[in-house]
What does this fold into?
Amino acid sequence: MMESSRDYSPALSPATLRLLLLLIACTSLFACGGGGGDSTPLSSAPPPPTWVQGTYAASSTYANKCASPRTGTDPTTNHAYLDSPGSTTWENFWLRSWTHETYLWYREVTDRSPATYSSVTDYFDTQKTTAITSSNKPKDKFHFWYATDEWIALSQSGVQAGYGIEWVFISNTPPRVLKVAYVEPNAPAFNTISRGAKVLSIDNVSIDSNTPAGIDTLNAGISPTLGTSHSFQFQEVNGFVHTVTLTAAKITSTPVQNVKTLANGAVGYMLFNSHLATSEQQLISAFAQLKAANVSDLVLDIRYNGGGYLDIASEVAYMIAGSTATNGRTFERTVFNDQYASTVNPVTGGSNTPTPFYTTALGFSAANGTALPTLNLPRVFVLTGDGTCSASESIINGLRGVGVTVIQIGNTTCGKPYGFYPQDNCGTTYFSIQFQGVNNANFGDYADGFSPANSSDTGVKLPGCNVADDLNHALGDPAENRLAQALYYRTNGFCSPSISIGELTQKQVQSAAASSETTGEPLTLPPQPWRDNRILTPR
It folds into this structure.
C-alpha cells in the first residue's frame, strides 16, 4: 500500500509563520523532509527518546509527535489535529508502546530499537508475532496500515480508487487464470464486462508473462493508481474476446445487491459484500423488503465479504434471528491480552462491554435508533468462500451462539476470530490484532475457518455442502452452483450429487501451474483494506 503524503497548511500565527519560513529554508537546502519515511525532525521537535530494551513508557507519551505534523481539522472529531513536531523515531516509539499495550500476542513481539528504522511502516511490520500455526501459516496474517485520509474515505463512504472489479485468481503463476468475480453497479465497466470474464492480456502483455517488465505491467494494470488507464483483453464466458480500456477512478461500493425472492417467494436472497458504514441503510431496506415478502428462509451470500464493522454484523444477525432468540444474549464478547482484567477494555480505557444483538440502527448510514426489521428465522443458509472473513464469520458464530442453525454452502472461510480498533497517529491508521471474539456460548476457536460438513478441510464443521465458486453464472442466478445447492439442500436436507463440488477444476489448474516448466512470481491483487477485518468503534 502506498502511504499518502502529509501536507502543511499553516495558520498565520507568529509561531507557525516561523515554522513555515524554516521549512522553506530547509527545503531549499534539501535538509528537511516530509512524509512518514523521513526520520529528520523539524527544528522545534524535542530530542528523540532513548530506547531501553524491555522498558515501555505509556504510548500517550509519544503520541502525535510527528515527522510531518498535520494542521487543520480532523474530520473524524471536527477538532484541530493534535499533531506536534516530532520525528519518525518518535512515531516508532509510539508504535512500540501501543503494540505492547494492546496487541493480543504482545509477548511474541521482538523488542527492536525504534531509532534504527527510518520508516514508520517498516517498523510497524516488525510489531507482530512471527509464530507459525500448525498448518504452517503465519499466526498473524492480518497486520496492515492505511493512509488515514484514504481510510476515512473508504470506511465512511465506500470510495476506493480502482475499476470497481472484484478479481479472483484461480492460478496466480503461469499458466495464470485471473477472472472477474463481479463488477460494482456504479463502475463504468458494469455493462461492459461480465462475471467470469477471463483476463488474457493487459497493455498487450500476456497474463502469463514472466519477465520482470511483464510482471510490472500486469501488476500496474490490476492494481492501478487513480486516473491511470490500462488496456485489458477479456474472454467472456461465452467465448467472446474483446478489448476494454479501463481507467482507475474513485468507485463507490454498493455493499448490498441483488435482493430478491426465489422458490415461489419462499426464499429470500441477498448479496452482501462488505460491512461498510453505507451498508447499514441498504441492509435495513433489504431485510424490510424480504420481511414484507414473508420469506420463510434466507440465503445470505457472503462469499466475497471480508468483514468490516462488527456492529453491523450484529445488526445483520439480529435481523435474521429476531428478538426471541437474541433477547438478553451476547452477539460477541471481546477477549484482550493478559495484561488486563476481563472487564477492562485497554483500547478505550472503559469497561469491556460485550457487543449485544443490536435491535436498532447505530447511525452508520441509517438514522440512529431506527428499529431494525426481523425475519425471525430459526436457520439461515450462507454462501461462503475463502474471502468470507472476520465480521462475516462473526455473523455465523454469533448466530450459532444463540441456537440458530447455520447451513454453509461453499468453501472454507478465512478463519479470523480476531479484530482491532483502527488507530491513527500522525496521518497513518494502523490495524493490529487486539482481541479475539467469542459468542454467547463462549466459542471463538475457528482460526482454520468454518467448513461445510463434507469438506476435507480442517475448519469447524457446519451442516452444508462443499461447492466451489461458479463463475459461469451470475450471482443470484438459481442455476449458479452454490445457490442451486442451497435451494436443493433446503428441499431435501442433503447435498445434491449432481451439483459439482468444483474443486477438481481449480486443483487441476493449480497442479498444471506447479508442474509447468514455466514458473514465476505471483501477481499482486489490489490492496483491500476492508478485507479480512473485524473492526470495533469506541462506544
The first strand starts at residue 65 and ends at 66. The domain at 256-501 is CATH 3.90.226.10 (2-enoyl-CoA Hydratase; Chain A, domain 1).
